[in-house]
Amino acid sequence: MEWPSFFRVGKSGQTVLIVDIKSGSVGASIVQISEDHKPVIFESARMPISFGERLDFKQFTSTMLETLESVIKHLPQDKVRSVHNIHCFFSSPWCVSAIKQIKKEGEKPFTVSKEYIQGVVRSEQDRFKELVEKQRSADGESESMPIEHTVVETRINGYPTDNPDGHETKTFSMTLVLGVVSKSVSDKVSRILSQLVGSQEVEYHSFILVMFTTVRELFDTHEHFMLVDVGGEITDVVLVREGVPVALDSFPVGRDVLIKKTAVEANVIPEEIEGSLTHESIKEKTDISTYSETNEWSAGFQETVLSFGNRNILPRTIFIAASNDVGPWISKSLSNNEFSDTDTQERQKTAILLGGNMAREHYVCERGVDCDLFLALESLFIEKLDS
Description:
Blueprint: E1 14-21, E2 25-34, E3 37-48, H1 57-74, H2 77-80, E4 85-90, E5 95-111, H3 114-136, E6 144-156, E7 159-161, E8 168-182, H4 183-196, E9 202-206, H5 207-218, E10 225-230, E11 235-241, E12 244-251, H6 255-266, H7 270-278, H8 280-283, H9 292-306, E13 317-321, H10 327-335, E14 350-353, H11 357-360, E15 364-365, H12 373-384
Helix pairs in contact: 1-4, 5-12, 6-7, 6-9
């Protein structure tokens, strides 16, 4: 089934700076966006935020900002200064995202208007912002900034429509993806980018929306699936039914946590665990799958999926965004149905690790440039953004 895109192709011939802030690393790339050609990634860089002990939020933020500055300075400065736009993407825990489903029913027909939809979106955004601020007040980061309030689907009398404005109906529903970040963090990020890049305004987005929209566009024959974004410290999981996200949750085990704790258990340095994931010659010595910390990730995933409910109809297809080292292990684990306890029918799962040739045909990396998966997906997202 072909799903209509809810964003249109933006301006062509633009050079943009993409900044990707994840829980364990910061990446950046310089990309040429053109309506007539694939996105071209000219430069790319990524650096880890920290591999030490867990820091409090203020220390973690300070380390992230230092890493951001280092990453931007690592790129060729003449190209950095030539960009037209800056797009910054936050993952958990920097961005708190939510999926909201709103439904209105009436005994008599009513007319859906653009003003009504905008009012509902503002109300849900304000309510979510207030909720996040209460939750984050303990960290001293009470003031939040909304960065996302995207309507991903609207329905009239139960049927999807791209343009509900002016329709008369007894039932109207819509699905929203909301995202907020700490205003203090976003202000500091903007200040660094302004100093290093120029006075361009920074547009903020969440990676969760990027992953959902690009997967739905690239794999438009899949109606039901799950998305798994494995960050450094956190893994996000999204449940999608009929091409629409319906549930989102996270658990605090990501790539860096997995490697650090496995290294402790194996009595080796983390770099040796990292090497075992990519070099066959030492894989047997430090096989990540033999250690209990991999069970911690598995348990976190299982608990998250169980929280979605309706486990007897969980999708078979799982799309995974992960680094090249732990990605294959996670993909293999899911494909081997190690999480069958979450599915009463115990159906075989199809795990699709994003990256490689499946997405490469949609963008171009200049020779010698590392094709970072997350930055590449974000370039595809920007290509489709409505200007």
